[in-house]
Amino acid sequence: MTTPDIDVLIIGAGLSGIGAAVQLEKRCNGKSYRIIEGREALGGTWDLFRYPGIRSDSDMYTLGYSFKPWTRPKAIADGPSIREYIRETAEEYNVTGHIQYNTRVIKANWSTPDQVWHVTTNQAGKQETVTCRFLFMNGGYYSYKGGHRPDFPGEENFKGQILHPQKWPEDLDYSGKKVVIIGSGATAVTLVPAMAEKAAHVTMLQRSPTYVVSRPGTDKLANFLKKVLPAQWAYNIIRKRNIFFSAYFFDIARSKPEETKARLHQMLSEHLPEDEIAKHFTPTYNPWDQRLCLVPDGDLFDAMKSGKASVVTDHIEQFDETGIKLKSGEHLDADIIVTATGLNMIFLNDVDVSVDGAPVDPSKTLNYKGAMLSNIPNLAATFGYTNASWTLKADLTSEYVARLLNYMDANGYTSATPMLETFPDVTEPFMDFSSGYVSRAMEKFPRQHTEKPWKLNNNYKEDVRVLRKGDIADDIMSFQTPETASAALKAAE
Question: Which residues neighbour 121 within 8 Å (Cβ) at sequence distance 6 or greater?
Answer without folding.
Answer: 36, 103, 104, 105, 106, 127, 128, 129, 130
